[in-house]
Amino acid sequence: MTQAERHDLYAELIELHREELRAHCMRILRSPHDAEDALQEALLRAWRSLPQFEGRGSLRSWLYRIATNTSIDQMRRRPEHPIAAEPVDEVGLDDHFERRESVERVVAAVGVLSRSQQEVFVLRDVFGLSAREAADILDVTVASANSSLQRARVTLRRRLGTSRRSSSG
Questions:
Q1: Which of 63, 62, 75, 65 is nearest to 35 (CA)?
Q2: 58 and 14, same structural domain?
Q3: Do 39 and 22 contact (CB within 8 A), yes or no?
Q4: How far apart are CA 49 and CA 63, in angstroms?
Q5: Helix (H, G, I), strand (E, B), or coil: what is residue 166?
Q6: How far apart are CA 71 and CA 27, in angstroms?
Q7: Burial of 149 (0-12, 13-18, 19+ CB in 10 A)
Q8: Residue 168, pLDDT score
Q9: Which of 59, 123, 142, 156 could disulfide-link to 135, CB 3.0 to 4.6 Å?
């Protein structure tokens, strides 16, 4: 297959998933501008990685995984967290700083997780996807996704100094 044919096939396949990937990036990043940037970066990563795509999983789940990773990487590069942009009155200033500090602690704690733990944690606990949906996106078994999520939760509880139990279903 020539480079031009490969490019045409890629463009055709990507168009089938572009809008749902944009929506996925938007759910993660909560910003249309950031979502568009993440989508473009994800599509570029996918193009560069296309020779390594072996077709063991679906193209859709492979693209979702790249978009998820790109969005998480972009979140890490943000200089400020969205909570900092909230308007704050004088009475709520202490509460605002406590919430911001809590968010920063959680983001820092998530940063110590392995890539697979970060992915499943974001998909399950941040975006509320089912175990099956997360497993499909990550192209792993449901048992593997649940295991990664359980390890992520244990690590986060330890890092954040909490002992609260949460369901793993």
A1: 75
A2: yes
A3: yes
A4: 10
A5: coil
A6: 10
A7: buried
A8: 46
A9: 142
Q: Distance between CA atoms of 19 and 23, rounded to whole angstroms?
A: 6
Question: In whole angstroms, what is the distance from residue 110 CA to residue 104 CA?
Answer: 10
Among 102, 89, 81, 88, residue whose Cα is nearest residue 29: 81
Helix intervals (H) in 30-164: 32-49, 59-77, 93-110, 115-121, 131-138, 142-160
Q: What tokens does 159 get?
A: 């890092």
Q: pLDDT tens digits, residue range 55-100?
A: 777 888 888 889 988 998 888 787 654 444 444 455 555 665 566 6
Domain, as residue range, for 168: 95-169
* The model's pTM: 0.55
In this structure, what CATH number is given to the domain that contains residue 27?
1.10.1740.10
**Distance between CA 77 and CA 122 in Å, rounded?**
16
> Are residues 101 and 72 part of one domain?
no
**Which token pair is 132?**
């099956």
Cα-trace Rg, the chain: 18
Amino acid at 97: F
